[in-house]
Structures are given as C-alpha cells and as structure tokens.
Amino acid sequence: MSTGWKIGLTIIAAFLLVMMLGAGACFYYFSQLGNQVKEDQRAAERLGETADEAACLQEAMTRAEGKNAISGTASATVFLATCLQKSRPSRGFCDGVPDRNDREGVRIWVESKCKELGKGSGITCGAMMSAVVSHCQNRGSDPAPSPTAKPEESTNKERKK
Asked: Closest by alpha carbon to 60, among 140, 161, 130?
C-alpha cells in the first residue's frame, strides 16, 4: 500500500472517529436534557397543585435564568406549560392575550410582555409567552367570577324557567 493510501485512510478513519464522538456527545447532551425536562415537569406538577398562573410564570422565569438557550428554553417552557395546566386561575392573567391564529398580534404581544417583564427579546421569554398564549386559548376567558355577580340570582332565574 502506498503512502498516499495510508494517509487517505488515516484521514478518513480520523474523520469517522470525530463524527462518532460528536454523535455520542449529542446523544448524551439530549438524553440529559430529556431527563432535566422530565424532572422539571414533575416539579411543575407539584407547584401547579398549590399555585396560581402568575406564580407558575414567575417560577418558570426564575428557573430559566442562568441556563443556556436550548436547555433553558426547553425546560422553562415545559415547566410553565405543565404548571399552568395544574394551577388555579389568576385574575387578569389572560387579559389582552391575542388569538393564537393572529400571528402578528401574538408577536407584538409577546415582545411587549417580555419587555414588560424585563426579559428583552430573548428566545426563552418568547417561547414561554407563546405557552401562555396557548394556555389562555385553551382555558377560554378569565373564569374568575365577577365580584358583583350573585350566584343565587342566576340559580333562581334558572329555576323559574
């Protein structure tokens, strides 16, 4: 075998080794990320059982701080979505949230909310606010009863019918 072939095969073998190591590192990273997301999901369920929507959002924002973009966004968004499903409604939490089909309205609302929360235009805040939009669409309008409504009046009206 000539020297050229040996060099070529060595380069190919080194390239394949680097590719295998890269694939292994990616597999390890994403499996760790998956474990972290599952752990965050369990914590979100526990918090959501005792907290309201606003507390879920605050905790998700706190958890996202100091994490890199990929892991921070994934774990914070899953945490928030899970917590919101289990939590009590917060009065006014969904006020002003646009319909998720209004892409421009959602974009403007997300930018405004992230700026209001002091998070700028980061990808993590945008993903979490998108989870809020989805949650608010799924739960409908603010379910908290009006402070002026008297439950017995509506019940009496129904009985008369």
From this structure: 130
